[in-house]
Amino acid sequence: MPCSSMESVTLVSKCSIFPSQKSCLSDLKLSVSDLPMLSTHYIQKGGLFTRPHLSITDLLSLLKRSLSQTLTHFPPLAGRLLTNTDGYVYISCNDAGADFFHAAATHIFIRDVIGPIEVPDHVKEFFAFDRTVSYQGHFKPLLAVQVTELADGVFIGCSVNHAVIDGTSLWNFFNTFAEVTRGVKRIKRQPDFSRDSVLISSAVLKIPSGGPKVTFSLDAPLRQRIFSFTRESILRLKDKTNNSNMGGEIDIAEVMGKQSNDPLKMIEAVTEISSFQSLCALLWRAVTRARKFHASKLTTFRMAVSCRPRLHPKLHPLYFGNAIQSIPTYASAGDILSHDLRWCAKQLNKNVKAHDNAMVRKYVEDWESDPRCFPLGNFDGAMLTMGSSPRFPMYDNDFGWGRPIAVRSGGANKFDGKISAFPGRNGGGSVDLEVVLAPETMDGLESDPEFIHFVTPN
């Protein structure tokens, strides 16, 4: 991170942090869920905190010490990627260390981070390894932690190789880092490093000379906003989705009577749409309107789902690595906008429900027949890609002086149509959506009556 007078954030120091105990973990082979991520940027996520009652020197010493202790529980994050002579890519748990950055932005206040309608550009500078492609983990640390001093707070940002970790594993690491910092001696959520599932394959991903490149434009103009939805708003949205065209509450007896000769239709009629699927449908409809497509234009909504509970036998809930697959749902712009919210949500619901053990294994087989990196982006202008999850424990990170005020991401993997779901800080089912769109599309979304009706005013 170069330092100049034009930058909001100044790099003060950088050092390497090594595990407090040497690793005895063998090399971990990258899975069919890991390998496609070699062409994506490092994941960048972090928390904004009030300033602790410690000097910055004492705070940095505390965080460095606890990071060293945490890496003992997560030895892959102190390792490097290696490719053997057969072309298989591994994580070498060689204790090569993680990077630790101290940066200063003491002219920036907490209100300057969370107050603006749009996510300010200086948030990107709270993270190291900006725009670093995960393949570079062969030559760079797999983890970098940056602690940025603000005028009245501190931001702790993690940049982690996406071929090594997904959201579930990232937040388990971040939460453990916080626990160790505040003095917890016994770690309850130990990661599982097993490599004995169907995700471990003999297929070889052929890497182009010089390594893979990201598959989306890095220079396209974008706007980025956080839209917040309260628990009450989400419940109203879910109720609207499930009861639209039903005249109020669903009468199960009436539905069964009308559909008694067609059990499949009866089951479909009483399917409950989840809160999150309702929210996704709301966004899909609003963005489709904002993009002003012809009715025949095919649109795509991609949702990342975890394979951990879907596989049989199930993966450990704290399986370390990527265990996600991206489910596309397709619908024409005309169908999305001529049908109601429930119809749109049901398309998403059907695909998520269908993604069972057999479907996870089919995705694995399809990848094995054509190993490739994941094509992340919005290639036809009609795609939305939902990542992260409001179920992740992002606000469980108490380093000893309180929970985060806000959670933010860096500039990694941002393109028109990239959405990330965060839990709301107040919990209870509240949700924040980090929405990245082309400027004219964001303008349309901000003025969409159906969408804005459910959004919490700034």
UniProtKB/TrEMBL annotation:
Q: Identify the InterPro entries for this entry.
A: CAT-like_dom_sf, Sec_Metabolite_Acyltrans
Q: Does the keyword Cell membrane apply?
A: no
Top-rank taxon of the source lineage equals Eukaryota
Q: Which UniProt keywords apply?
A: Transferase
Among its keywords, does the record have Transferase? Answer: yes
State one Pfam family annotation: Transferase
The protein's GO terms of the molecular function aspect are:
transferase activity
Know the name of this protein?
BAHD acyltransferase DCR
Species per Swiss-Prot/TrEMBL record = Anisodus tanguticus
